[in-house]
């Protein structure tokens, strides 16, 4: 704790590593608290990534994150594989306390902790993740061209994903556990008017079935009648929402109603001077690896400008 660093980056997905690359190249030697169990964010649990620019033949998610980590380390970023337990951000010198007991201090902090997909927690979901179970239609819809698809959810994202997937699947069935959708009316109308989408209300997934190699069907149940059945499916897209990983902040930053960090306009500045937010934890809309990387770049540049302003103030004092 004796060393006061320039920047600490909390999180290690595309946003965190991109911020580290930019700050490292600026000579600021950032510290990246990457996480103890899931360094690299959601991409370490995905298979082939085909829509990240620069990889015309695609790249495996874990490989992409490993490349980003190595690139950050090349520019002297220090990476610590631990979780942040608490923060003190309202002082000029910020303090970050990790689960392992280490305490770090810096003049600026970038929060890039991402979000995680809300799961169904049913048998087969984890087993077939990446083998038919997906949480991103934009990422994986192409793989299910001409195959039966099931979408689970009732919000705008579920409607949007069902519409997108209707371009690919031989059939698309949207399952919602309630008798009313949470989505906006315009999205509901658009879904109901799409002849390629079948809608089943009051229906939950009980199990995701497969042959060991991929998904073959889903077991479903009507919550009103109790009637059970099975739907053929090779792709199961779960659109039950995402949860930003911001609880550890303990109210230190302004959050929106869904827990996402609020930033100032197109910048990454939060309501606390010297604290910046990048990636999915501050993005309730796009939630893509490439957009997260872009905000990681912005956060690095915003943090660099903030540090330069501190130096200017000190010189004038």
UniProtKB/TrEMBL annotation:
Binds 1 FAD per subunit. Its EC number is 1.8.1.9. One of its GO terms (molecular function) is thioredoxin-disulfide reductase (NADPH) activity. The keyword Ligase does not apply. Its cofactor is FAD. GO terms for cellular component: cytoplasm. This is Thioredoxin reductase. It comes from Bifidobacterium pseudolongum subsp. globosum.
């Amino acid at each position: 704790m004796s060393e006061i660093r320039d920047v600490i980056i909390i999180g290690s997905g595309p946003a965190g590593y991109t911020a580290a690359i930019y700050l490292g190249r600026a000579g600021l030697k950032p510290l990246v608290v990457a996480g103890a169990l899931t360094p690299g964010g959601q991409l370490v649990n995905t298979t082939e990534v085909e829509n990240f620019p620069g990889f015309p033949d695609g790249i495996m998610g874990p490989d992409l994150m490993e490349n980003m980590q190595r690139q950050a380390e090349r520019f002297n970023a220090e990476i610590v594989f631990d979780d942040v337990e608490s923060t003190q951000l309202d002082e000029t010198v910020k303090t970050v306390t990790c689960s392992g007991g280490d305490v770090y201090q810096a003049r600026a902090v970038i929060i890039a902790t991402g979000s995680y997909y809300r799961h169904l927690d049913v048998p087969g979901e984890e087993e077939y993740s990446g083998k038919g179970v997906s949480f991103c239609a934009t990422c994986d819809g192409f793989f299910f061209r001409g195959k039966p698809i099931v979408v689970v959810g009732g919000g705008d994202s579920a409607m949007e994903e069902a519409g997108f997937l209707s371009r690919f699947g031989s059939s698309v069935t949207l399952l919602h556990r309630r008798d009313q959708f949470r989505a906006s009316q315009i999205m509901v109308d658009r879904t109901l008017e799409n002849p390629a989408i079948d809608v089943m209300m009051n229906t939950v997934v009980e199990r995701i079935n497969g042959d060991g190699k991929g998904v073959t069907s889903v077991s479903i149940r009507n919550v009103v009648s109790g009637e059970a059945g099975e739907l053929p499916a090779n792709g199961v897209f779960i659109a039950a929402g995402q949860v930003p990983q911001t609880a550890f902040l303990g109210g230190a930053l302004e959050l929106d109603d869904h827990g996402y960090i609020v930033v100032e306009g197109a910048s990454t500045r939060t309501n606390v001077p010297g604290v910046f937010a990048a990636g999915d934890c501050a993005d309730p809309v796009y939630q893509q690896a490439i957009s997260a990387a872009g905000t990681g770049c912005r956060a690095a540049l915003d943090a660099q400008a903030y540090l330069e302003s501190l130096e200017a103030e000190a010189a004038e004092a």
